[in-house]
Amino acid sequence: MKKFPILLTFLLLSGCAGKYSDSNITLSLGEKRALDVAEQVSLGYSTGPISLSHRKLDLHEIAGHLDMDEETAKLHLKATNVHGYYSLIANNYPPETEFILYHIDYERKVNANKTFFVNGNGILITPMDTTYVELESNFLSFSNYLPGEPIDFVLGSKDGRYFAATRIVPNPIMLKDKNGHLVSVEIASPDRKKYIVSGIGFEPFGSYMLITQFENERLVHTLQANENGEMFQLTGPTIPWVTGGEASIELRGDGIDNLITFEFQWGK
């Protein structure tokens, strides 16, 4: 059954900003900005002085949260098809400022989850019953996600001055070689015909050739890693009547001893 991320301390709030109309879809100005920031972050760009990141909870933490032993928690995750539990981490947020937490699915549908307030210590908190819960204790869980299906989380200030985003891929398509090179593939369009191939841990400013194949169509991309050894490439089939099937990735270049290659299913 298709899913939404579960915020364990859930409170759904809606903003009251002006509306922005695009292709018959009405978005608030904050939602429009959240979409723009999420897109920038997915391509490796920085979005300003504040930051938003995430971490995946380990089995010991999950077991403690569920009040189970680790073996029972492991069986529970498998039975419910939960890919994992995550926590969001926020840094450099200005005190006395209110932020809205948005989540955006791969079809680019935007949901405003709740409002967080930055206290005097720079910690984001949200009301729950008679107490307050910190952002990092506001755990997220995900189930039944497609391979490579991303979800973006964006924190945007109500005054529109600050935005930061992070992307979680609960059910990743990825390969890490013995030298620490990590290559991943994410869905990048609602029709699942566009994908972002990301590389992390490569030679800074290194030169690479990426070959993607979707059924019988072979695409060649020439890439250069950035100063952090990261690279990002949008790819996908161009033949309109092909809607899904098998795909493959090949990557070669500076610092790669053996060809990096793997296969995945694409489309609908």
Summarize the structure.
This protein is mainly beta and 268 residues long. Helices cover 12% and strands 46% of the residues. Strands 9-8-7-6-11-12 form a six-stranded antiparallel beta sheet, with helices on one face.
Describe this protein's structure.
There is one protein chain. Helices cover 12% and strands 46% of the residues. The chain contains three helices and 20 strands. It is globular, with a radius of gyration of 20 Å. The longest helix has 14 residues, at 29-42. It has two domains: 6-168, no CATH class; 173-267, Immunoglobulin-like (Sandwich). The model is unreliable at 1-23 (pLDDT under 50). The strands form five sheets. The protein has a six-stranded antiparallel beta sheet, covered by helices on one side. It has helices at residues 29-42, 59-66, 70-79, and strands at 6-7, 19-22, 25-28, 51-56, 82-91, 98-104, 110-118, 124-128, 131-134, 140-143, 151-157, 163-168, 173-176, 182-187, 195-200, 207-214, 217-224, 231-235, 244-253, 260-267. The protein is mainly beta and 268 residues long.
